[in-house]
C-alpha cells in the first residue's frame, strides 16, 4: 500500500544523485526513504561494533498518521490516506503518535544498561531488520563510502 519496496542501495555517491537499484518504488522519494533508513540502521550496527564503549541503537517509531510522509503521492493515495487510513489509524497494528514515540525513545536513551547495536520497534522491543542490514560487510561498506564521500565536502 505504501509503495515502499525496500532499500535500493548502490553506493553513497549514487544516493546523492538519487540513483537506486531498479525495481523500486513508484512513489517519488520512496526509494530514498527506504534506502536512507537502511543506511542509518547499517551505520548504527557498524558503529556499535566499531566503538563498543559507546551505545548506538536504532528505533522504528511506528506508523504515525499526520507526518505527511506521503505528501508526494498521487491525489488518490493522498485522499485515501487522509479520509480512510487516518480514521482507521487506531486499528493499525504499528500505529503510534508523537507522545508515545517520544516516551519510548526517552526510555531507550535513558536506559542505563550497556545495550548497543539493537534495533527497537515502536513498543521498545528489539526487532530484526533485513538480512542485508545485519551483514557486517554491507555495514562496513556503507560507513566507508559515506566517510569517503564526506571527506570530499569542503566547508
Textual characterization of the structure:
It is a single chain. The chain has 155 residues and is mainly alpha-helical. It has one domain. 45% of the residues lie in helices and 5% in strands. The protein contains five helices and three strands. Strands 1-2-3 form a three-stranded mixed β-sheet, covered by helices on one side. Strand 2 (118-120) and strand 3 (126-127) form a beta hairpin. Helix 2 (30-50) packs across helix 5. It starts with 11 loop residues before the first helix and ends with a helix. This is WW domain-containing oxidoreductase. It comes from Actinacidiphila paucisporea.
Shape: globular
Distance between the termini: 41 Å
Q: Unreliable stretches, pLDDT < 50, 5 or more residues?
A: none
Biggest β-sheet, characterized?
Answer: 3 strands, mixed
Count of helical regions:
5
Percentage beta strand: 5-15%
Q: Compute the gyration radius: what is it?
A: 17 Å
Question: How helix-rich are the residues, as a percent range?
Answer: 40-55%
Strand order of the largest sheet: 1-2-3
Quickly give the structural class: mainly alpha
Q: Could you spell the SSE succession in H and E letters? A: HHEHHEEH
Amino acid at each position: 500500500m505504501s509503495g515502499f519496496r525496500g532499500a535500493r542501495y548502490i553506493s553513497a555517491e549514487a544516493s546523492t544523485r538519487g540513483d537506486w537499484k531498479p525495481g523500486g518504488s513508484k512513489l517519488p522519494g520512496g526509494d530514498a526513504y527506504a534506502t536512507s533508513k537502511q543506511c542509518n540502521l547499517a551505520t548504527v550496527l557498524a558503529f556499535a561494533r566499531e566503538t563498543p564503549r559507546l551505545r548506538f541503537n536504532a528505533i522504528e517509531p511506528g506508523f504515525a498518521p499526520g507526518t505527511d510522509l506521503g505528501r508526494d503521492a498521487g491525489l488518490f493515495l493522498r485522499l485515501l490516506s487522509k479520509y480512510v487510513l487516518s480514521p482507521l489509524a487506531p486499528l493499525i497494528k504499528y500505529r503510534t503518535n508523537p507522545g508515545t514515540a517520544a516516551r519510548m525513545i526517552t526510555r531507550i536513551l535513558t536506559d542505563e544498561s550497556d545495550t548497543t547495536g539493537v534495533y527497537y520497534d515502536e513498543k521498545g522491543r528489539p526487532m530484526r531488520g533485513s538480512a542485508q542490514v545485519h551483514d557486517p560487510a554491507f555495514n562496513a561498506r556503507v560507513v566507508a563510502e559515506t566517510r569517503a564521500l564526506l571527506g570530499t565536502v569542503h566547508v
